[in-house]
Amino acid sequence: SPFSANTAQMITVFLLSFCQVEAQHCVWYGECGESVKVPGKKYNCKYTGSPIPLQSEGYDLLTELCPGYDYGNRSLCCNVDQLRTLKGSLQLPLQFLSRCPACFFNLMNLFCELTCSPHQSQFMNATKVDNINVLEVQYYIGQTFSNAMYNACRDVQAPSSNVKALSLLCGKDAKDCNATNWIQYMFNIENGQTPFPIIPIFSDVPVSGYTPMNNKTYACTEGLEDGSGPCSCQDCTKACGPKPVPPPLPPPWTILGIDAMTVIMWISYIAFLLIFIGAVLGAWCYRKRTIMSEYGPILDSNNPLSLNINASCCETLGERFENVLRLIFSSWGSFCVRHPSVVLLGSLILVVASSGGLVYMRITTDPVDLWSAPTSQARQEKDYFDSHFGPFFRTVQLIITSPLQINFTYSPYFGGSDVPFGAVLDKDILHQVLDLQLDIEGLVATYEGQNVTLKDLCLAPLAPYNNNCTILSVLNYFQNSHAVLDHSIGDDFFVYADFHSHFLYCVSAPASLNDTTLLHDPCLGTFGGPVFPWLALGGYDETNYNNATALVITFPLNNYLNDTVKLGKALAWEKEFISFMKNYKNPNLTVAFSAERSIEDELDRESNSDIRTIVISYAIMFIYISLALGHIHSFNRVMVDSKISLGIAGILIVLSSVASSLGIFSYFGIPLTLIVIEVIPFLVLAVGVDNIFIIVQTYQRDERMPQEELHQQIGRILGDVAPSMFLSSFSETVAFFLGALSNMPAVRTFSLFAGLAVFIDFLLQISCFVSLLGLDAKRQEGNRLDIICCVKLPEGQEAKTESFLFRFFKKVYAPFILKEWVRPIIVAVFVGMLSFSIAVVNKVEIGLDQKLSMPDDSYVLDYFKNLTEYLHTGAPVYFVVEDGLNYSSPEGQNVVCGGVGCNNNSLVQQVYAASLISNYTTIAFTPSSWLDDYFDWVKPQSTCCRYYNNTGTFCNASVVNSSCVHCRPMTPSGKQRPEGDDFMRFLPMFLSDNPNVKCGKGGHAAYATAVDLHPNNTGVGATYFMTYHTILKESPDYIDALKMARILAENISQGCSLIYIFLLCSVFYVFYEQYLTIAYDTALNLSVSLASIFVVTTVLLGFELWSAVIVSLTIAMILVNMFGVMWLWNISLNAVSLVNLVMCCGISVEFCSHIVRAFSISVKKNRVERAEEALEVNTFFGITLTKFGGILILALSKSQIFQVFYFRMYLAIVLLGATHGLIFLPVLLSYIGPTVNKAKVFAANQRYAGTERERLLNY
């Protein structure tokens, strides 16, 4: 932050005595008595004689200050003492306004004429004098001159403050400053600097016999006679050309005033319906005339072994591949049942070995690691910034409002309109807030037995000279003191000045060391820097800070990159702060607060509270699985026919696969994330349960063939169903592993863990679970009780019957949805859903509302709410110039700086131009520029840059010592910018200089961390130039800010080949960078997943290309419909929802692949009957019913992110998957399903010859 002093200090005015005398006479000469009202200042001596030649010792001073009088015998109305006083008084204006030579020349003209002009009596009138002193004077100034002087200075910037210089020199905000009130302020005795009143009278025509001073002025666009160039664009709007105009926003894409996507999809949908209905009617008429089976070419007799086979090469290859899979899985299933101990023991050893990696498990909770890849641009920028300038400060912040309705009005004693004040600026409220602030300053935490206080951690920019902590609070205008807050000047009848007047002054000149009221209290904070009102106040309109409805108190704490002890102390103090604030009660104050650790703490708390919800959710699913696997025929055989132990074993297998996946990746040092822990068990349970139900229910419905043993039966069943399980599991595994190519850490980590867990789950199911199924079948056949296996029932045999739900699907549901008139309705409804989803897919919001990541009872939610409602300034943004630019050369300086002689497309100039259209660029202010302030600081006219001539060490401007000499000579070359060795010689002095009354440009406070010097100060490395974003409230605001800042940085880099600029804004760029490409990432991830599913399905379905197309098409429809649900349910697209979409892609395979494979191997006579048979292998019992119980519990979670991204999205995934898999897909297959594979039919006939299935085939 910049540090400056008040205008009043900048200018000490020297009055002239006046008697009305003829022209060419003085009204004063020399300095006399001490000023009564301003101690330390002197009156000028009354003198009405002719001008007196200046003593020779003052020639250099005259040349420096008033070169216009440096001619002849230099007869003037001032002596050397007055010139010295003039120089001292103009130090701060020099430091701030000399950036624009024309501005400073005009200002010097004003004061040179006032102090030394030999024609004083023409435009000055001493209205009050005593025996020797001038006590009051009137100064007649040309209106033209004063306007020209103001116009030349109005745009000059104060780089370290991100504000205009006149805000620091006019006693009010620059926008309220004009030619008249600026000069009146400089001459006002109330500013505490002017020794007696100077009354300016503005006129361009003679008044009362006086001719106003109307000397020649220079516009800011003009160069001076001494060779100084015109002011830069940044300091002179007229030098800029036309103001940049933001490009117009692209108009919304509409057709006839309606959203174009909506119109297009309506037209497409209607066109589809017309074509589809026409095709259905045409096909129906054709079938009425010609009844023909699709098996016509195959079966020419009732003997299934008598076939006309014209199977294509591809069909034959597919049948052979299918047969190989069947034989492999059959043999493996038989082996698992015959040798359960070997399989179970081997599996247990492998699971334990894999899970052993959990001892090395690391859970990533650092938000930066969760959301930003180490190779991403924003992450690399942050790492570069941290390594060169240190990590960002830790922020502890309070936003304070009051429930009281006590608005009041302040009436200034010295005139002016009434000023309304809000409740939070009531003095009693301010006292209470100050008590709270002082209590926080006094908090003591304990870390490893040591006491930790705020002073141990806080940012103290002027340390070791000033160890006060930086506290950005309106109370710092009152030096954090109750006594200063109560300070007032008045009598028994009136209050002339109090906290109201001081506040109003300080919000317009926060860097002032002395306000212009009678209080003369400083505004500068106790830490040595200004507190800008837009950082300490909230809820005001425009710049009417008196209307503020919120106070903002910010404690910046030092952050530590690799120092765990200091970081631990900071965390301990923040924990103490949070505990204190949670227990703080005050009926007059409503306090929202946050510390740097708050979000991470709340995420941890949320995770712990969600464990209960997750456990209940899984428990419900486990209970359902254990009960639903059993096929109970009678109450007497409940414990025999139940499959509780088998269900528990299946669940343990699911958990083992998750543990193995986590363990294997933990061996490789890949950390887990909360998303992995919360989502993967859910995913693997979905996939695993489905496979368990398929195996068990197929076994329950199967009749053992004559002379077939149990191990052969289970082997045969596994041969039938395992290829389908392998198809779905392998498709999901490949899809997930390809999803790991994502740059988003959360998505990549999830995809890796999920892919491996699904595949391990499949391996355990076809080994462990098959062995356990064999053991359970033997138990059941032996009439032994489930769980209590040693107890055996004496009588009864298992009867093979079909369950109610299975009969319902087979006898009622399947025939109904495949009726002639129902199928077109289903297609129309689902295509309508698809059309709607496509129409809104581009309207799904991108981003993540940070409020959703917090528990719904979190204190941080109040803070986020107030942050959005009250704050007026966005996050800081740093434009970083990498190491390599030669700042010692004019070329290197000109591509960065913003003052006279700098390039029009320099870094500072381009950021300044961007700030002019802040609504578009989101850049709020001109950047603080250490280089421009350094140039002002090092000027020989300034008292800032001095050194001891005997030691060469730096001599601060406040030091009075004859051995201190100016850094640079008062020569034409000395007045130029420092170059070469001079540049580096004085730069370290600038960066160590604290601002003070005599030099407001010291760079220690504002720029100590902004310049990374090479070892031994041999050169300048990386540097940054800081400004602020406009207020950012929602995710789209942050994303847009990042996008615009990137564009600006790119423009700066392209504008100059000498530098490479990158930028960094606080830490939010790291989080929001993902959203710049998330639409592309989502499309790529889902497309790659779909493509992999298509390839795997093609191969594993026996090279049936059309079947793979249908599977991929149905999954694509589910995914597109998910976007429709996201739009309807206000679910934004971000890393969490992308993980869910990738998971949806995997789970959708379960809903589709089993049915398509069952359809492809069915040997029924037409597509409708094949679709009916395929529905017998449905996912309703497994994945659908299992998930419903678990998902409904998630709605009870306190976590908003769970409610939105898990409950809503999981529910949508299951509903859309179930409806597409169980309703739409069978209907689609009945219309355009693949034709029968002739080779598979022939193989089936041979395989089932002489069995029960031969009768079914012939039928």
TrEMBL record:
Signal peptide region: 1-23
Example GO biological process: cholesterol metabolic process
Domain called SSD: residue spans: 610-775
Subcellular location, principal: membrane
Pfam families on file: NPC1_MLD, NPC1_N, Sterol-sensing
One GO cellular component, as annotated: plasma membrane
Catalytic activity, reaction form: cholesterol(in) = cholesterol(out)
InterPro entries in alphabetical order: HMGCR/SNAP/NPC1-like_SSD, NPC1-like, NPC1_MLD, NPC1_N, SSD
Entry keywords, A to Z: Cholesterol metabolism, Disulfide bond, Glycoprotein, Lipid metabolism, Lipid transport, Membrane, Signal, Steroid metabolism, Sterol metabolism, Transmembrane, Transmembrane helix, Transport
Listed transmembrane segments: 263-286, 342-361, 615-632, 644-668, 674-696, 750-775, 821-841, 1052-1072, 1084-1103, 1109-1129, 1136-1159, 1179-1197, 1209-1232
A GO MF term: lipid transporter activity
Location in the cell: Endomembrane system
Entry membrane topology: Multi-pass membrane protein
NCBIfam families, alphabetized: 2A060601
Family of this protein: Belongs to the patched family.
Protein name as annotated: Niemann-Pick disease, type C1
Gene designation per UniProt: npc1
